[in-house]
Amino acid sequence: MLKTQILAAEVSNLTDARYFAAWGVDYVSFNCNEGEENFIGESKLVEIKDWIEGPQFLAYFNGLNEAHSMEELVDRTGLQGLVLGPFTPDKTIKSLDAEKLLKEYLESDARKLFEEKNQIHEDRYSLVPIVKTSRQRASDFFLENVLLDIEDLDLDTVKKIINLSQCGLVLRGGVEEKVGLKSFDFLDEVFDLLMD
Predict the structure, then answer these.
(1) Which of 8, 118, 152, 171 could staple 20 via S-S, CB 3.0–4.6 A?
(2) For 107-119, how does the pLDDT look when each residue is reduced to its tens digit (9 = 90+)?
């Protein structure tokens, strides 16, 4: 069992999905924004999702989408919820009826974090905040039930998070060297630290 919550973000291949599921991550998200680097189409998303068990599966949208189109994709694909980009309008968030909702915040907007968290849909589900930050600023956000998306994550920062906070982490796989082949050396070290 892992010591903290983990979101495996923008998974785009079965190799990453199986790797993260085997470690027991809480969430796996798929980038559903056409034209973006890690975009994954619905059929491939469903194919990957059907191969693995354990995590909650989420669709990532950058914030420029209509609520109804995001909910329709979640329904069609059998996902459990959404990860919303930092520019998602409050109006869109308030109109969503997702089982699970995570939202990204830029470091500069993180001060609004708890105000929004406590006001939006408190009776339907909890909004799990994701703070995009740097390794140097990560300790500014050592808050309970916050996922940190640290752009330059290293093992020392992982150790600090485990020892000094209740924060979870956003981790990413990457491009396969060829189908089914890639290096997980850094992630293996991270997960070794995260094991109970």
Answers:
(1) 8
(2) 877 766 655 555 5
